[in-house]
Amino acid sequence: MLNDEQQRVYEWLNDDLSLSVFAEAYKGAAILINQRSAGYVSFVAHVGRDLMNRLASTVAGIKSERVQYQQHIDKLQGGWREEWRLTNEFSSEVAEKGHLIPIDVCQKISTLIDEHKSGRMRSSEADGLFFSTFLDYSDRDKIPDNFLSEWKAAKEWFLGHAHLRDKPFRENIGNDLEKHFNCLDGYLYIAASSQYDRLKDLNEILDATNQ
Predict the structure, then answer these.
(1) Could you report the per-residue pLDDT of 145-180, keeping only the tens digit for each?
(2) Where does the source fall among the domains of life (predicted)?
(3) How far apart are CA 10 and CA 24, in angstroms?
């Protein structure tokens, strides 16, 4: 079962934001952590990752876009020549001057690099989007560093544990999962609270981390 704070988060997601899929996923993750059912680590990490990546952008109306690497490579593959591949058979002249690659192939490579850079930038900006959307930090530079570092650490942990793997998780993995989910849980509860309670809870976090 959910505790009182988690129930408030669930109602906020489900009723206030009208995001029933997010709400049910959150509820399921919170219950799984308590029950520690088979496979719960990957399931909870997957939910945590999606909440951190998509909740704020969904509410803010920002379209989630991914770089379509496979499509870009497919386009490049059609115009790529095997003789451009690096080998030990290059003459000293070719090694020094390089290859003359058609402009359309160069443009496809340039487009891929540009989209990759944009994707990296979106990922970086997404870390601050939750705080600007829900916690009244309109200026990203004013978000306390410890808030962002804690958020990023949880997000990276979820990303690293959301998929199935060959080797089993280490024995005490549940403790790390609880730590990072509690981090996310805390910020979700603050976002779901009234403005007065939100400011009070944020100040308490700041005071605790500055001691």
Answers:
(1) 889 999 999 999 999 999 988 888 888 899 999 999
(2) Bacteria
(3) 8
Residue 64: which of 137, 112, 119 has the closest Cα?
A: 119
| Cα atoms in the Cβ-side hemisphere of radius 13 Å centred on 85 | 7
Give the closest residue to 65 by CA, choosing from 20, 118, 21, 19.
118
The amino acid occupying position 96 is E
Question: Which pLDDT score is estimated for 135?
Answer: 87
Could you read off the pLDDT of 180-193 as tens digits, one per residue?
Answer: 999 999 999 999 98
CA distance 110 to 90: 25
User: What letter would DSSP give residue 85?
Assistant: S
Under 8 Å between Cβ of 181 and 48: yes
